[in-house]
Amino acid sequence: MTLDIATLEYRDVAKTIDHSLLKPELDDAFVHAGCELAAAYDVASVCCRPADVVRARDILAGTDVAVGTTIGFPHGNHRTSIKVAEAHAALDDGATELDMVLLIGALRSGRDQEVRDDIAAIVEVAHAAGAIVKVIFENAYLTDDEKVRACRLTEAAGGDFVKTSTGFAPSGATIGDLQLMRANTSPHVQVKAAGGVRTLDALLEVMAVGVTRIGATTTSTILDDFKARKAGLAAAPVTTGSSVGGGY
Predict the structure, then answer these.
(1) Nearest-angstrom CA–CA distance, 207 and 7
(2) pTM given for the model
């Protein structure tokens, strides 16, 4: 199943993308160019490393692109007090979206209350500042039961999004995982796919199963393809009974 491009506008697609600037080797010039690209394509946000938040905030000032960063990244097993300190620092620097990694080891060990409390501590800090929290599960390391429990714990803790992956594990988002996550959260909890969504067709397929954000490094490729296909539709002759679709 995929979405029909003819039913979508540019903003419908662009505002699903968090442009990712998280690789450890990125230099200042790359981060600056990435923020400028995000602004030019009017995506949802830039998700940058904590040390880059101030730089991203300044570059993106006056645009409709949010600044996001990571908490407890990429392994999740920081002490909650450290994650809270990271959240305060990120918000003070200008971030309005926090992508936190849950306590993976605690979840796998059955310490569900600890996982919930850890998420809730970040949610409390973020929501008080008007920011949102996306909770990263790192599904590559989890069973389906653990993924379902993570969904329920995130919702109980007040998280705004459930998110598949950091992009640094052996695998990223899969359609099966996204369907599982969508089925095990209430409609007000959104789903973010990260890791492996690199093409427009891949984005259309995850949108079709209920994803409202993706993490992407191939932003320009995806959105240039969308604009080209829309232009082709506009230029094509109208034929009775014709239809346009896509694939993954």
Answers:
(1) 13
(2) 0.92
What would the pLDDT profile of 27-74 be if each residue is shown by its tens digit?
Answer: 999 999 999 999 999 999 999 999 999 999 999 999 999 999 999 999
Residue positions annotated with a catalytic role:
99, 163, 192
SS3 content of the chain, % helix, strand, coil (to 5): 50, 15, 35
For 147, the token pair is 């993924």
| Contact assessment for residue 97 and residue 73, using Cβ atoms and an 8 Å cutoff | no
Q: What letter represents residue 90's amino acid?
A: A
- pLDDT tens digits, one per residue of 151-173: 999 999 999 999 999 999 999 89
| pLDDT at position 19 over 70 | yes
Encode burial over 79-111: b for 16+ CB neighbours within 10 A, e otherwise.
Answer: ebeebbebbeebbebbbbbbbbbbbbebbeeee
| 245 Cα distance to chain centroid | 25
Match domain 5-232 to its CATH number in 3.20.110.10, 3.30.360.10, 3.30.70.580, 3.20.20.70: 3.20.20.70
Q: How far apart are CA 217 and CA 231, in angstroms?
A: 24
